[in-house]
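hey can u check if this looks right to u? its 320 residues, i copy pasted from the old doc so theres a chance i mangled smth
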Amino acid sequence: MKRATFFILVMALCLSQAFAPAANAKGSAEEDTLLPVVLRNRTAGQVSISLVRMDGVGAYWLSVAPGAEQRFTLKGGSYAHTTYACGRTDTGTLEVNRGLRLIFTPCPGVAPNPGAPTFEKIHLRDSPRGKLWSYHYGPTRSGGASGSGGAAGGTCQYTATAEVDIYTRPSTSADIFSTQGAGFSIQPSARTADGWLGFDPGVAQAANIGSFRLRWLPPGSGTRSAGCSSLPVVWAPLPGLCYDMPMDTTNVYANPDTSAAVLFVLHLGEFAELLGTTAGDDWGKVDLGPGNTGSHAVGWVEAGSLNINGPCSGLPTVSP
């Protein structure tokens, strides 16, 4: 009898131990659900999506080469997206609450209609802003698209006719990214007002966003197709400067103190020069003048918000 009672107690203990981890694992899975996101790029150029969690606990950069398909795994949640495709940029929100298939359709013309109900077709020239860019619309949205982005003159194709240096920023005083020989060919996605062509090299670049992801071909080098004249003119960082590329909304304060006046608010995709940090590395001093906001304010951002690019290692220690 005692042996039977002991056996029953041991079995009960084993069963309780066996089921307890399963319950914990389920709870953990609910808190950190991982979902597949498939990007299919049917355009002739690189496409990219910057995703920042609305609750500030994560960020992703998804990038796919022309004609390719790639699968990513993301934590579920609500994200602010900035999407780059066909020489254009769009922003909005993306709900990752199920597996997604995001199809970037060819750039010219309007988006194909209607498409499978589980596919989100992305076509930045006439896409509705907001969640999922869903192309489940009827005939009322089948009219012509507006905007440029290179479609009028076709795809921009660059071909090197001699050895060419490719720069990290659109200036011959910037660092050289690589040197390519005659015959090197690429499809740029942007240009500067003074004739530099920018393209995404398709390599991992940590948290670089916007124009900081581009590599630059100098004016007067190589041959360029007619479509290059229709590429969007973009802001580009100056050579020799360290930039702050905040990944979330960031206050610029008049002094290194969160109770000080807010001079400006930087959003995702807005940049400023980083002049230095305080002795305790708690604050960074920024100058918005060399950035893309149009403001010339000089102020302070909390160091925890910094996301930097450029020659930043030799920056001085600054005081209020």
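Confidence is low (pLDDT under 50) at residues 1-31, 113-118, 128-132, 135-153.
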